[in-house]
């Protein structure tokens, strides 16, 4: 499926103001919604995800190569609000900010079968979406299952591979973090977990029951997810709110002395309401790497759930021009 390649439209000051007002209204709506029970578990069900190609400016992301860009939708009401992504045995594993788990295959046709369920446990009562605000996902380095980071409560939970039960819980609070400002990205390195804070100024290295804060230099915006590239570096999604809406970029995270730093960036030519929230790295048989990205539609129009596949340059070639 080859999406039409087109440049994103330009926006006037009036449309920019309207966009900012809409984003503020969404934030107020979410705050009100958090005060009443707003989450119902439906159990594991089979579903279908429909994929529709969308315009994407492939020239703007060189030397990354566009594989495909699609708008994703499903009749299952839990599909949306995607906040984390991983690769699991050739399939995509998505996690939403209300604790839903979505397994589906990469698109080869206009639709793909999926399995959608919920995390079996988490902080607080499962009746409230804010208690299942899962924002980061990473495979356990020891092969025990999946680690999930919960915002608001600032906790890290380990679930078994099939997400049928919780195995472990680690509290990350007591660091002065705001309720809705916490861990957004997670990656694994040499038996430890690297948890990237949304501010982008530090990460936590968690090994066993110990967590150590490590500084990061060079952030230009908020971090919404991260993933390991497999060569000692990591890639993160960086976003900023501008007068013209949201701006998203990919940025390399690499070691620098005793800490880390953000390096090369590639701007993503997304729309002003597209909130890139999830990224996964797929190691291809030829040794190259494919990036899978998803956006968070916040269950609100005109925001969208997009799935984007980009191939990275071969080893030794720079990410940016």
Strands side by side in the biggest sheet: 3-4-5-6-1-2-21-20-19
3D shape:
globular
The number of E-state strands comes to 21
Helix share bin: under 10%
Computed structural class:
mainly beta
What's the total helix number?
Answer: 1
Looking at how many chains there are and whether they match, the oligomeric state comes to: single chain
Distance between the termini: 27 Å
From the alpha-carbon coordinates, what is the Rg to the nearest angstrom?
A: 18 Å
Overall pLDDT confidence: 88
Largest sheet: 9 strands, antiparallel
User: Low-confidence parts lasting 5 or more residues at pLDDT below 50?
Assistant: 1-7
SSE order: HEEEEEEEEEEEEEEEEEEEEE
Strand content: over 45%
Give a brief description.
By secondary structure, this protein is mostly beta strands. Helix content is 7%, strand content 48%. It is built from one helix and 21 strands.
Folded structure, characterized:
The protein is mainly beta and 321 residues long. The chain is built from one helix and 21 strands. A nine-stranded antiparallel β-sheet has the order 3-4-5-6-1-2-21-20-19, with no helix packed on it. Strand 17 and strand 18 form a beta hairpin. The protein is globular and about 50 Å long. The N terminus is likely disordered.
